[in-house]
Write a structure and sequence with these properties.
Blueprint: E1 2-6, H1 12-20, E2 25-29, H2 33-40, H3 51-60, E3 64-67, E4 75-78, E5 84-85, E6 90-91, H4 94-103, E7 112-115, H5 123-132, E8 144-147, H6 157-163, E9 166-170, H7 173-183, E10 191-195, H8 196-227, H9 231-238, H10 261-266, H11 274-284, H12 286-297, E11 305-309, H13 324-334, E12 338-342, H14 356-360, E13 365-368, H15 373-376, H16 380-386, E14 391-394, H17 401-406, E15 410-413
Parallel strand pairs: 1-2, 1-4, 2-3, 4-7, 7-8, 9-10, 11-12, 11-13, 13-14, 14-15
Antiparallel strand pairs: 5-6, 8-9
Helix pairs in contact: 1-3, 4-5, 8-11, 12-13
The structure holds ligand SAJ.
C-alpha cells in the first residue's frame, strides 16, 4: 500500500517516517526542494529526539522517498501548516487548499484522504471535500475522507505519536475504519472514532484548555507580585489538591499551536468565545509585563545592555515560532536598550544570536526567557565576573535564586513578591 504525505514539517516528517518503517511505501512531498533533497540524502533538519535515526532507517529500507509533488497513491495525508492570518485572526487555510488541489489530478476511486493539519471546525466538510470533488469523484461514494489531528508534543514527538490516543474523524464509517486500519500499524494508544467536525473541535479544545489555564497562571502571577506571595509556591500547593491542575506563568505563550488554535474556535463564534479571547489577551500581555519588570530594575537615562538568554518558545527545543522572545526583544530595542541574544538550542531566529560570553560581557541585566537545561547549570560566579551589574530576571523560575544571591546578584523571579529581591 502506498501513502503520500504532503508537508514534511514537524508532523509530516515523523509521520512519513513512521509509516515507512511500518510496512508502507511512502512518498514524502514538500514544495521546498531543499527539504526534499535533504530527506533523500537521509538528513533531518528538525531537532527531535530519535527522528534522525528513524528517517535514516526509512530511507535505508527504501520505503521513504522525498518528492516535490504528489503522485498516485492509496492514501494521501495532508500535514501542512495552518497559520493565523494576522489581519483578521482567522485560520489561513491556503496551504491546506493548495495541498488538496495538488492531490486532485492523482485522486482515484477508493483512495483515502486524511487531513492532519489543525483546522477550524467544519473545514473537512466545507473546504477539503469540495476541492477533492473537483476530481469528479464523490466523497463517501468514490473516495474516503477523515480528519485525524496530530496531538504530539514537540520534544517528545516520536513517543507521543505512538502512545497518545488518536482521534479518527471519518466523514462516514468506511472512511473511519480505513483510516483506523493504517494508523493501527504504529499507534499503540487508544484509537477513537468520531465525526470529523468533533475531531476538529476537540483538537482545538485541548490547546485552548492549556491557553486559558496558562492565562490564569499569568494573571495570578501578577496578582501574587502585588500581594506579596510567591506564585510558584502558591501553584505548587494548590496543585496538591486532587482536582486542581494549574499551569505555570511565563513570559508569554509561544509555539505553533497554543497561541493560534484558540482563535480557530473564536472565529466560529466570536460573540460567545469571551473567556477564550480574554485568555489570549492576558497571555499576549506578558511580553509587555516582562519589559516593564526590566525597566523597573534599570537606572534611568543610561544606555543599558540586556543579555537575553533563550529565544525558543519553550525549553530544550529548537523551535522559535511564535516565541514571546520576539516581542520582548522588539520592545526592549524600542525602549533604547542594547540587546544581545543567546540561545544554545537554535540557530534560526529573527534577531542575530551570539555566544553566551558575548551576550553577558558588560551586560547590565540577564533576562532568562526559556528554562533550557543549559541555563539551570549556569555558574553565577563566572557570569557575574563578566557583567557590568549583577541583575538577573528569571521569567521561568529555573535558576537557584539563593545560589545567585550568594554571588551578589539581585534576583527577580516572575511572579514573586518584591521581598524576593535583595536590594
Ligand atoms: N507554557 C506556559 N506555562 C505552562 C505550560 C506552557 O507558559 O504551564 C508555555 C510554554 O512555555 C510555551 C507554550 O506555553 O511557550 C506552549 O507550550 P506547551 O508545551 O504547552 O505546548 P506545545 O505547543 O509544545 O504543544 C501543544 C501540546 N498540547 C497540549 O498539551 C494540549 C501538544 O500535545 C499538541 O500536539 C501541540 O500543542 C499541537 O501541535 O497542537
Amino acid at each position: 500500500m502506498k501513502i503520500c504525505v504532503l508537508g514534511l514539517g514537524y508532523i509530516g516528517l515523523p509521520t512519513a517516517a513512521m509509516f515507512a518503517t511500518h510496512g508502507y511505501k511512502v512518498a514524502g512531498v514538500d514544495i521546498n526542494n531543499r527539504i526534499v533533497e535533504s530527506l533523500n540524502a537521509g538528513e533531518v533538519y528538525i531537532e527531535e529526539l530519535g527522528l534522525g535515526a528513524l528517517v535514516h532507517d526509512a530511507i535505508e529500507n527504501g520505503n521513504l522517498t522525498g518528492k516535490n509533488k504528489p503522485e498516485e497513491s492509496d492514501v494521501f495525508i495532508i500535514c501542512v501548516p495552518t497559520p493565523l492570518a494576522r489581519e483578521n485572526k482567522k485560520a489561513d487555510l491556503s496551504y491546506v487548499i493548495e495541498a488538496a488541489e495538488s492531490i486532485v489530478p492523482f485522486l482515484r476511486k477508493d483512495n483515502l484522504v486524511i487531513l492532519e493539519s489543525t483546522v477550524p471546525p467544519g473545514t473537512t466538510l466545507g473546504v477539503l471535500i469540495p476541492i477533492l470533488e473537483k476530481s469528479g469523484l464523490k466523497a463517501g461514494n468514490d473516495f474516503y475522507v477523515a480528519h485525524c489531528p496530530e496531538r504530539v508534543l514537540p520534544g517528545n514527538i516520536l513517543k507521543e505519536i505512538v502512545e497518545n490516543y488518536r482521534m479518527i474523524g471519518g466523514i462516514d464509517e468506511k472512511s473511519s475504519s480505513q483510516a483506523k486500519e493504517i494508523y493501527k500499524s504504529f499507534v499503540k494508544g487508544k484509537i477513537i472514532i468520531i465525526d470529523s467536525t468533533t475531531a476538529e473541535f476537540v483538537k482545538l479544545l485541548e490547546n485552548t484548555y492549556r491557553d486559558v489555564n496558562i492565562a490564569l497562571a499569568n494573571e495570578v502571577a501578577k496578582i501574587s507580585e502585588s500581594i506579596g506571595v510567591n506564585v510558584w509556591d502558591a501553584i505548587k500547593l494548590a496543585n496538591e489538591h486532587p482536582r486542581v491542575h494549574l499551569h505555570y506563568p511565563g513570559p508569554g505563550v509561544g509555539g505553533h499551536c497554543i497561541p493560534i488554535d484558540p482563535w480557530f474556535i473564536y472565529e466560529k463564534a466570536p460573540e460567545m468565545a469571551k473567556l477564550i479571547k480574554t485568555a489570549r489577551e492576558i497571555n499576549n500581555s506578558m511580553p509587555h509585563y516582562v519589559v516593564n519588570v526590566v525597566n523597573s530594575l534599570m537606572k534611568k537615562n543610561e544606555k543599558k545592555k540586556i543579555a537575553v538568554l533563550g529565544v525558543t518558545y519553550k525549553a530544550n527545543v529548537d523551535d522559535t515560532r511564535e516565541s514571546p522572545a520576539i516581542e520582548i526583544i522588539r520592545l526592549l530595542k524600542e525602549k533604547g536598550y542594547t540587546v544581545a541574544v543567546h540561545d544554545p538550542k537554535t540557530e534560526n531566529f529573527v534577531y542575530p544570536l551570539t555566544t553566551l560570553d558575548n551576550a553577558i560581557n558588560n551586560a547590565n541585566c540577564l533576562l532568562i526567557l526559556v528554562d533550557h537545561d543549559d541555563f539551570k547549570k549556569l555558574d553565577p560566579a563566572s557570569v557575574g565576573k563578566k557583567m557590568r551589574s549583577k541583575i538577573v530576571i528569571d521569567t521561568r523560575n529555573c535558576i537557584d535564586k539563593n545560589m545567585w544571591m550568594r554571588e551578589g546578584f539581585k534576583c527577580r523571579v516572575l511572579g514573586e513578591s518584591c521581598s524576593g529581591v535583595r536590594e
